[in-house]
Amino acid sequence: MIKVIDYTKEDFTKTSQTYDVIFDAVSKSSFSRCKSSLKKKGIYLVTLPKLAFLLQMLWTSIIGSKKVKLGDAVAKVENLLFLKELIEAGKLKTVIDRSYPLEQTAEAFRYVEQEHKKGNVVITLEHNNKT
Predict the structure, then answer these.
(1) Does pTM top 0.85 for this prediction?
(2) What are the φ/ψ torsions at residue 105 (nearest 5 degrees)?
């Protein structure tokens, strides 16, 4: 069974529920915080690794039964198809925190680096059809 959790509404790490896989799609958590929510051979899967995740991947590959992993290419295609189905069925909605025009890309990056965003930050492109 697959369970999608909205991290802005529910803190799954504060329940006794355990999971085979925790997929942190937005890197809002950490392996150490999620470790107790993983089953014995559970996997903490990240797509946007920070240096700490890379070090944890190395460390968990050497010791322990719970692992930190990056998604591989085959799994990414399968996951994307699954996510597409969820979106089309209306079960997964995109959360947009802020939008910035292309000229303010640097400001958008500064905002993201503050780690306070509650969704995606979008860079918009304006297309002028003037000839």
Answers:
(1) no
(2) -60, -40
